[in-house]
Please model this.
Amino acid sequence: MNRSDTRSPRPVSQGADCHTRCGISGDGVPGWLLYSVLGTLLAAAFLGSLSLGTLKYSLWDAIRDPSSDLAFIFWDIRLPRAVLGLLVGATLGLAGAAMQGFLRNPLAEPGILGVTGGAALGAVAVFYTGLVAVFPMMLPVGGIAGAFVSVLLLYLFAGTLASVQTLILAGVAINVIAFAGTSLMLNLVKDPYAVLDIVFWQMGSLADRSFRHVVLILPFVLAGWGLLLWDGRALEALSLGETTASSLGISLRRLRARVVLGTALAVGASVAVCGSIGFVGLIVPHLMRPLVGYRPGRLLGASALGGAILLLGSDIAVRLVPSLVELKLGVVTSLVGAPFFLLLIFQMRKKIV
Amino acid sequence: MNLIRTESLSVSLDGVTILDDVSFSLAKGEIVGLVGPNGAGKTTVLKTLMGLLKAERGSVEVFGKPLGSFSRREIARKLGYLPQETEIHWPLVVERIVALGRVPYLMPWEDLGEDDERIIADAMRATDTLPLRKRRVDRLAGGEKALVMIARLLAGEPEILLADEPVQGLDPSHSLQVMEFLRNVAGNGRGVLVVLHDLALASRFCHRILLLHGGKLMASGRPEEVFSPANLKTSYHIEAKYGNGDGFYVVPWRRIAGGSDHAKK
Model:
């Protein structure tokens, strides 16, 4: 009788226990409280990203004397890294929340569903063909094109209200295709150093990026954010299903177009510059959902802030963890995120049985 | 004044004719029951009136103007639609579900205003759901959930209400509550078109009945005219008992042997 009951396990179970345990009211915490806490955490993470690292220095010293070495580290290394962390983290959190709202599925995430993989393939193609040396702008464009094709494929194959299984399988297939394409190009590259470059880039990192990269992706990322944040109310209406949402005046066709385009623009551009950083889009919306009263619209902004906090925090951790070689950010988020993903599947399975 | 008027309405889905030459009207103050066997095209009528399905032939007029002359948003403000299946994908609190009724009035960047909040509270008060407003919708009983969905419908302040089986799965007390409520809403100068399987409720509460059979309008008129033994036999292949104690009512009584046409569907 109820389609969502039989075809996709209802996300109703998600976080339900936490909600009672933490004493959060059904409608979440008040907006002013949520945003001031998240805002403070974000400011702290941003400042931490600027000041913490292998080299300890005081921010004030770096800013006071613009000609010093410290100033160089601050302006040319730490600041672009922190800004990218903010942009990419917010993008991943926001895109995860938007995809989950649109597909009404708490396991949707750009990485798991192959959007990140597609973007990586697009960006590698631009590397491989040497286009990037001629037009640096082609790098985000390649990533966006790859992401766009992946999201389209996903919706084409899985539809908008696919069961969890169908959706994840479609994601697996897209990931495999993207991985095969990327491997093919790596296979065909003659210069072993170029191969290494690409492999390391693909692991996902914010290190060694400059303001050139920030400028390169900023317009795409902001446009993508705009398209996704615009959809808050439509996603809320979609909580009641496609028929009710349409009867409330929502155009599902336009909504789908905005979600596809917004995800492709923001995620594609981010991946093109920072490689694949997985699971942020899965973890953050999951943590935020009880705090916003499960509202898919409010979840967007909260997940953007949460994503930025998580990514900046992880990036600080990567720098501080003592290791011979600096760990890649994407490796760390996957190491933490994959077990989290398994845990979610386990929880859902318990609910279905 | 007619709120809705259809003329020779025909609708096809994937080449199959679902509605064939259906003409009817809904006037202000009226509650009209749309009945018929499964697959007769009742839901298709509602979806076509909402503009969710396109008419192949014939016309639909709302407030005296062609349906096509209204934007999707305008239709959403004038006509409220309660689908048969209650899909709720996230465990929102009741208040938030009801607030979704205001979606047609808000731009994407706008928040609920004071007026919206008042209308939402009124809708919950009218449906006795105000005490539930902070409850999570996944923790409600079936009857409570049905009332919440009606509150959501009312929060949109539609002049025309289209309800698809609003009493499905409800106990007699809640069924009566919902039907009384819909009749009162119609009495307040709106129009209600309600799909019902329960012929007893339809005969008790509706001013007029539209009987659909195989996509055609088999009969329309007052309940005592439409629920004639002949009509019930042809459409549902049933016999009914009739009562007239406190107004006309009909109770389906037994199937008529050989009524295989209906069973095949």
